[in-house]
Design a protein that fits this description.
The protein has 47 helices and 39 strands. By secondary structure, it is an alpha+beta fold. The longest helix is centred in the C-terminal third of the chain and has 39 residues. It catalyses: a beta-D-glucosyl-(1<->1')-N-acylsphing-4-enine(out) + ATP + H2O = a beta-D-glucosyl-(1<->1')-N-acylsphing-4-enine(in) + ADP + phosphate + H(+); ATP + H2O + phospholipidSide 1 = ADP + phosphate + phospholipidSide 2.
Amino acid sequence: MTQVSDPDQGGTIKDQAKKRRVVIPCWTEDEEAKELQKSYSKNKVRTTKYTFLSFIPKNLFEQLHRFANVYFLFLGALNFVPVVNAFQPEISIIPIILVMSVTAVKDLWEDQRRRRSDKKVNNRLCDVYDRKQKHYVERRWAEVCVGDLVRLCCNEIIPADMVLLHSSDPNGVCHIETANLDGETNLKQRQVVRELPQQGSEFIPESFSSRIECENPNNDLRRFRGFMEHPGKIRVGLHSENLLLRSCTVRNTETVIGIVVYAGHETKAMQNNSGPRYKRSKLERRLNVDVLWSVALLLLMCFVAAVGHGLWLNGLKDPIFMIPDDTPPALAAFYTFWTMIIVLQVLIPISLYVSIEIVKLGQIYFIQNDIDLYNPRFDTGVQCRALNITEDLGQIQYLFSDKTGTLTENRMLFRRCTVAGTEYPHCENAISLEQYEEQGCGDVDHSHTLRSRSSKKSLSCKSLSCNQSSVSLKTLTAESDTHSVLDTLRRRTLGAFSGTMECAVVPDPQLKGKLDTLCSPMHPSVRHEAAEISHILDFFLALAVCNTVVVSSATQPRHVVQMPVGRTPLRSLEDMKLLLQKLSLPRFPISPNQNTDSPSSLTKKLFTRGRSAMYFPNSASQTPITTQPLPNTPTCTPSDTPSTPSTPVLLRSGPCGDTKDAELAKGYDETDSDEDDDDEEDDLLYEAESPDEAALVQAAKAYGCTLLGRSPEQVLVAVPGAGPLSIPLLHVLPFHSARKRMSVVVRHPFTGDVMVYTKGADNVIMELAEGAKDGFSREVMERTQRHLDQYAREGLRTLCVAKKVLEEQEYKGWLKRHEYAETSIENREELLLESAERLETNLTLLGATGIVDRLQEEVPETIEALQEAGIKVWVLTGDKQETAINIAFACKLLRPTDQLLTANCDSKEACEARLYELQCEIRHFTNGGSSSHDMLEDDRSTSDFVLVIDGRTLDFALHNDLQEAFLDLTCCCRSVICCRSTPLQKSQVVRLVRDQLKVMTLAIGDGANDVSMIQMADVGIGISGQEGMQAVMSSDFAISRFKYLRKLILVHGHWCYSRLANMILYFFYKNVMYVNLLFWYQFFCGFSGSTMTNSWVLIFFNLLFTSVPPLVYGVLDKDVSAETLLDLPDLYKSGQKSQAYLPSTFWLTMLDAFYQSLVCFFIPYFAYAGSDIGVLSFGSPINGSALLIILLHQVIESRTLTWLHGALLLFSALFYYVFVLVFSVTCVTCNSPTNPFGIETKMMSEAPYYFVCGLTTVLALLPRILLRVICNSTCPYDLVKAQKIERLPPVDYCSSVKQWKESRAAGKLSTRNIPQNLSVNADNCITEAGAVVL
């Protein structure tokens, strides 16, 4: 809190509101402010696009943004012009009306769904304070306004963005669940604005008269800048911790009161509601080019017809069959040009765009309902958030992947640590982890019971979810007595990052023994230096308090931490021990079997008695118990754990000293069984925002430094030898991606000094601790660095922990500038960042931790399959280089025969030289010095080089003048691993590869730091993992595990691309083929624009008669089965090379359409030459032949023929013949001026009709069939070979697949020229001589 002058004095509130938002209570007397608040958005939301009156004009306006709709609407209007019309005007507008009507109905249906949802949301009720009635009244959400005071109860949804003014929690804390907003299920802690005049048990609305200034509405969920100005001109900064966001749910708090600052569409939730993502796929871009070619072809054909008509008129001299007309031939030719545009309009496939949308919806339906992509553990399947890029999944060439949470579980398990330069390997902990994985529990995080062989007691790790309301009644009732405890625990909802192994950590005996000296200060056999003990204690205190973990219990929503009674700080650990001994406090157990209650047991029992129970730690009013420990009694041994376990087991974690206080125990049930004490620490429920925090808090708990509770001002921690201590929490400097660390400022519980505890990335902390002057600190840093390198080689994630002791004057000086930064609205983030960096200097290194994050299941197989498919896999991670390399070997991204190329440079010049040097090394080892561009033309997957580059070098390589050299180098490598990369660098790398190499890219990640990379790629995939849903919300597709990427890309991606590509080509083919029939007829009618068929058949031929079969073909066709595509990933390369839709394929299809149209027109022409049949009679066999040719052409192109395909083909043919027959016998004046009455019935009653149709169909399709047979026999594609293989019996199929893979592997090995001494030992990740180019 700070008092500053008002910089805006002299200006009006309206002037201030231009850059900021001013909010005051709704009952204020300031008329100007009240008028301003009326201009703010109301809380009523409307996500619909249309109203009753605006639907038709607005929908028409939106549809006319499509070029195809404008084109056909123009042709329909053109047909109303008498001099150029080709047929009845009303018939010409049927296609565009039909297509736009279908689209309008679809839009209306979607809008009605949104309307019903809006109505449900707006009609929700909440309590709003009414000054006239002097109490809270129920109002609809739509009636809430900015400045209203809203009261909410537990489990109620927040109606608008509100600043928290009051909470029923004594510490002014409120918990919210943001699952509706960002998908994160762990609870977030929010706190009441500091220094409010009233902080009592009851909030009086009339007494609140403060004024709020905050930033204008924006979509940043993580940021809120503003201040609250009290009547005395005292300002208090407002942060995101003070803001309750709309759509979130109040949890674990009875009542909260807040003032609305953003309402309706100005709330952050609505600002982020952007709806589905729309991108333009590569195939669509290719389609647009071919549509332009079709337009050019149309214009050419119309120009030929216009010129031909002009020449034909010039050649006539007073013909008796023409009405005399004064129109000159040139003008008549001009009219004919536009007439032919109308006649040949079908050349542009109007129904293609609608058909593509329908087909993609069908493809998405089958992807989302694929049972192989369903995860029963999370009850989720694939989410398709982008509706129009499914085919891009079949053309991926580069895959960029995050590591943590994407390739790995993101379940951080504490493995080992180093403290004060001494490494503690935690061997028993490693054995326990191995035993756990051997039990098969790694794939699914079942929370089951493990037993200690020595103690024979269950070591159960219960659910750590404090969101008890999220467990459904169905789940609770299902846990009946008929099921085992294991089955029951498996069904329980786990807390965030809190599975079985996170809870159970086996302490290292050596480190545990040193820490136990706090429990037995007079033990004669244990003597350690005070400096080392101080480092160890500070190390575990930092792990326990330097986090944002929310603590709850199984029976109460959260622990209540009261302000402790003032006490004299202890100046040293020895003073603490002596004081504890003099006071004879029962800080240490009398014997291993003593029936005592630990601090966590006391707090658990207190909270089971109701909310009125309060715990006053370190209070002077506590009555000490005079029982003293026996002099020769072993100490610091948990009651359920033997002093020397015979077998490594999962040890129960907890404080080494148990406590029993007679006053606190008063009112407890003395009959509580020992089983309750066995579960005492399992009842501590931790809700962490990241897996690292959960793992470190559980590790500290295993050593007795148990986090018991948290409030905005205090942290309750049970410390070995001291019991529960209330540590004043002065400041929290949260983790920031730029700083790569987090810090807390506390007052030391023993010395009273102001302490800064910092944890973060090892390279950052080591740099901040380089200022150490004493020899002990320097020695600690050197040893710790060696241990860090060892951890990284083992594939462990490393974090460093440090501290800093602040003098009071130094702290006050920093605090003054920090409070200024907190109350600033402009540039607040920059000022807070500078403030944190000023504090985090000259740190003293305490130690480091090694955390294991094991691979997800089937990751190696997935990456191997993707690489066999020709996809280059890059890993972009923020981990250390050694850790990334180790994980790369484990997931088969690196092979034992690969040659590692490392680039670690300190300057741009060194980076340029290193890139050139590595290119020379590659040329030396490959193909006798061929260039990288030559390698680019070959199969890139045959390369045996893998580039490993760190973040600093990558920053240099991304400079404009080094980009080309960097890309040339990467093109020669099979894979690239970018270590220590920032989120910005990830997106820059993806953009560089995508734009410069012109390749199809896919990015996959699970966290907020992957969002920019996911959005930059052509296809973005989010994993709904442990770090919330930020990546999912920004992605095009969402999956729950990395292994599902294999089938999503190799199977569904291949199918979607091949289906859509072939369907588009088929649409072009059938339109061109049918339009050319009309064009050939112009040579025999003087290019007059006449047609040999009635206009109804002409319009409906492509719109109705031949449009349904391609839709089914585009949704259901399978060129190769899913099993074969998974067994032979090589088949995916056909999509990468766009074999199904090349420019040459398009023009060959056009030529085939021209040929078939020639056969379809001239065979009937020569068959009926010299006869007296009319024009419409001549067109009857042509239309019949064209229908059969087009339908059978699709049969030839289809790889899958089922009863559904056959039924639809038969239906299309019957539909055509039924229509023309009914039209022929009923219509007399439908096709003025001609009369089609009886024509079709007469033609179909004659045998030549069927002979002509049959002969025409055979001759038209024969070349395509012969060409297909010859190509598939002499030089078949891989897809054709695969189709032959999958028809074999199972035994022959397996042998053929094996032979296929062996031949491909032999072909790749023959192209390699890598010396035999270049290899890497993948077992221990230790490179042999010459394996890594350094």
